[in-house]
Amino acid sequence: MTGVEIVEVCPRDGLQNEKRVVPTDDKIELVHRLIAAGARRIEVASFVHPRRVPQMADAEAVVAGLRPPPGVRLTGLVLNARGLERAIATGGLDEVNYVVPATDAFGLANQGRGTADCLAELPLIRKLCDEAGLDLTVTLAVAFGCPYTGDVSPPAVVEAARRIVDVRPDELALADTIGCAVPAEVTGLFRALRTLPGLPPLRTHFHQTRMTALANVHAAQAEGVTRHDASAGGLGGCPFAPGAEGNAATEDVAWMLRRSGHDAGLDIDRITETGRWICALLGVPSRSGLAAAGPFPGADLARRDGGLSD
Amino acid sequence: MTGVEIVEVCPRDGLQNEKRVVPTDDKIELVHRLIAAGARRIEVASFVHPRRVPQMADAEAVVAGLRPPPGVRLTGLVLNARGLERAIATGGLDEVNYVVPATDAFGLANQGRGTADCLAELPLIRKLCDEAGLDLTVTLAVAFGCPYTGDVSPPAVVEAARRIVDVRPDELALADTIGCAVPAEVTGLFRALRTLPGLPPLRTHFHQTRMTALANVHAAQAEGVTRHDASAGGLGGCPFAPGAEGNAATEDVAWMLRRSGHDAGLDIDRITETGRWICALLGVPSRSGLAAAGPFPGADLARRDGGLSD
Question: Taking 80 as the threshold, does the pLDDT of residue B131 lie above it?
């Protein structure tokens, strides 16, 4: 078994696109259930304008209510310096996740400005994070396809990544925001990033819209990318990305990776149960395979340490 | 673009496990719609005992009603010589698909006998196919996991495959009957098969139970396996394999492969539409990603971004 990291994004990506606004106390319970299931890095809120994303209007209250044990890292999504200042002011986060759109069209719809403007603010974001002692992850959104322009140019993505890497983020993620990537594209784009000097650790963010999320995680793993966003119950979507149906489900990703010899340190049954719980609370069906399938018959997951794994 | 073959199994695997028994005329229409969408190899029925699988009781009538154009190959699933004789008697098939279970427990539940007995009948099956001028595919079921025993021993699968290859089938398929395989296992098992002399072309049969089907197709492709079973709408399951929830959806597999440079020759929109049609007829939700996602964005979505950028 080798280690792999799953960043749990259900409290943010999972809840931001649901009609029903989850009460603050239930969000706090969700995070605590995820921690009890072994999650060690959790995106707990999005510091965006409450009128644009009312599901995230209580971001500060959520963070204030969390009691993470040592070793658990909390992160929050920010789209600009104003959101970052809110995130810093909570005093409860370990890192923030700043989003740069790979296309102007998505950027304008999602955050009111295009790629260049988001890149231009990045040095300030880095400076503010440094001053506040927060780690900075940058996520390059719609890196594999855009709800407005369709195909996205890989060289343009690599160029945006180069600009991001110049600002020394602690991590860079490629996001398939609408779930249209296929493994060959994942392989190609992560390989292309390897040409950039000073590359930080990489992370993936895949949606299951066209059922390719786990295939894409597998392809990224094969390229040495061992950090992956996922959402309990497969919840997820973006209010400004039509057709973004569900993140890769944490339990499904963890199952696939563990049976492939990569342990994310999660209690897969408890994650599955947590996904069922939050989906029931929202009144939506789970998009998780494991939630429907139930436990694998007769298997002792921990016993498997490779065998045929390569 | 390189070629790849998708064997459409919706009329057989897709319908055999649904509560509602589809009328013969609708089955025939399903096959004709699939042909119109570009399907060139279709598993149209299962010649099993009608009391055991009432959904397939009209196998002969289905075949009799089909009018495949030149270039379309029809296949039928058989579990024994008696089923094969029924399949031959239709006079309308090009090939048959004989199932050998990788575990005795699944074999006893699925077809009333274990691995050894199914292997022992294989020379007779080959002889009858030769006499009838039918191609013979052999599918090794539960090759990656069994609903009754859990993990399946890869060396035992390879040994069963060796026995099958001895009988010179025209093709050998590995089936993940309950949808528990992960890509590392797919890679390992297909690589292990390569050690067998006289290996025929290989095919995959993946279920989407734990959301790994497309990842597994991708892994098999990387090993040079370019033939894949899939089912329009993601329908599928086995009455004797609890938890086998849905085949890989044809439209999702075809989308992933085409965007990876492998063309199955299908009209993906028409396959998606056919999947929607049969799911509506059955009164079940589609399990296809593409059916929910709609067409990949581009011109259409770009024209209606006004309401989203508020």
Answer: yes
A310 within some domain: no
pLDDT of B306 reads: 32
Q: How high is the pLDDT of residue A296? A: 83
Q: Which residues of B touch A243 (CB under 8 A)?
A: 293-294, 297, 301
Nearest to A293 among B150, B154, B210 (CB): B210
- Spatial separation of the C-alpha atoms in residues B310 and B301, rounded to whole Å: 16
Q: Within a 13 Å sphere around the CA of A41, how many CA atoms are in the beta-carbon half?
A: 17
- Does A245 contact B292 at a Cβ distance shorter than 8 Å? yes
Quick check: is A308 in a domain?
no
Give per-residue pLDDT as tens, B197-220. 999 999 999 999 999 999 999 999
Task: List active site positions of B.
Answer: 238
Q: What is the pLDDT of residue A302?
A: 38
Taking contacts as CB-CB distances below 8 angstroms, the residues of chain B near A210 are 252, 255-256, 289-290, 293
Residues of A in contact with B211 (CB under 8 A): 208, 211, 213-214, 249, 252, 256, 288-289
Domain range enclosing B272:
2-303
| Interface touch B210/A255, C-beta < 8 Å | yes
- Spell out which residues of chain A touch residue B180, defining contact as CB-CB under 8 Å: 296
Are the C-beta atoms of B64 and B33 separated by less than 8 Å?
Answer: no
- Is A202 inside any structural domain? yes
Phi, psi (rounded to 5 degrees) for B71:
95, -10
What distances in angstroms separate CA A47 from CA A8, A18, A23, one per listed residue?
A: 17, 17, 17
CATH number of domain containing B61:
3.20.20.70
Give the chain B residue whose CA is nearest to the CA of A301. Answer: B151
Q: Is the pLDDT at A109 greater than 70, yes or no? A: yes
Task: Please list, residue by residue across A228-254, b when 16 or more beta carbons sit within 10 angstroms of its beta carbon and e when fewer do.
Answer: bbbbbbbbbbbbbbbbbbbbbbbbbbb
From the CA of B193, how many Å to the nearest CA of chain A? 12
Nearest to A210 among B148, B179, B252 (CB): B252
Distance from CA of A208 to the nearest CA of B (A): 8
Q: What ipTM, to 2 d.p.?
A: 0.93
Q: Closest partner residue to B212 among A145, A243, A256, by Cβ?
A: A256
User: Does the beta-carbon distance from B184 to A212 stay under 8 Å?
Assistant: no
* 8 A C-beta contact, residue B210 and residue A256: yes
Number of alpha carbons in the 13 Å side-chain half-sphere of residue B206: 30
Burial of residue A192 (CB within 10 Å: 0-12, 13-18, 19+) is middle
DSSP B20: S
How many C-beta neighbours within 10 Å does residue A75 have?
Answer: 25
| φ, ψ at A29 (rounded to 5°) | -65, -40
CA B184 – CA B17 distance, rounded (Å): 29
- pLDDT at position A211, please? 96
Q: How many domains does chain A have?
A: 1
Residue B256 domain-assigned (yes or no): yes
Cα(B256)–Cα(B41) distance, integer angstroms: 19
DSSP per residue, B108-143: HHHHSS-HHHHHHTHHHHHHHHHHHT-EEEEEEETS
